């Protein structure tokens, strides 16, 4: 009996080198998506092609396909490109699979329902604290902040909560980008103040007329994995609301494995 030889098709299906080849056009297209995530706002075709290292004509064709799928949008007035609703949904779906975000979302929902205030959940990004969920409360606030907005590390309650509960080397680059980043005494005092109370607060500092209070959701190492924030009219956040914020952030932290060893 002769040994059966695999067909050419079978060989291709089991060849690891073949499986690794992938689809080059997808990899090229994703360079454009990566370019859009690396910048702070809408970009021109020329700028995107340069960042992604793709010719403008090829970049335009990829963008046309991305626009049809909703992964990219184009402003009709300026012609600039930005990430579209499908990209936002994909990013949020990925974040929702992280334990820290899933835990934070559950805590945020309860917090907004019980306090009536608008709330947000943020994680730390390359440029600051990034809002991954925004829930309006019964007491509406008017602001341009929304999902995807980035908050400063020193000038916002959310950023200050990360500042106080992350290793200094993790926030050093962000601090250096802000005006008072070189004032070590100011930063140290700010960090100590937040850690003493467990809550970071601002009133009119970032947005005139609005107050915010933030508390960290800590991981098993005691580092801020995410931050819960309440937003209200200036002077409108009660002690009861901030106490609830502190309690729910601590509960979420325990769900992530944090234990207070003091």
How would the blueprint of this fold be written?
Elements lengths: L7 H7 L1 H6 L2 H15 L6 H8 L3 H14 L2 E3 L6 E3 L1 H12 L2 H17 L2 E7 L4 E7 L14 E2 L5 H8 L3 H10 L6 H14 L2 E4 L6 E9 L5 E10 L5 H17 L7
Antiparallel strand pairs: 1-2, 3-4, 3-8, 4-5, 6-7, 7-8
What does this structure look like?
By secondary structure, the protein is of the alpha+beta class. It has 2 domains: 8-84, Winged helix-like DNA-binding domain superfamily/Winged helix DNA-binding domain (Arc Repressor Mutant, subunit A); 98-255, GAF domain (Beta-Lactamase, 2-Layer Sandwich). It is 49% helix and 17% strand. The protein has 11 helices and 8 strands. The strands form 2 sheets. It has a 6-stranded antiparallel beta sheet with strand order 5-4-3-8-7-6, sandwiched between helices. The protein has a two-stranded antiparallel sheet with strand order 1-2. Helix 7 packs antiparallel against helix 11 (239-255).
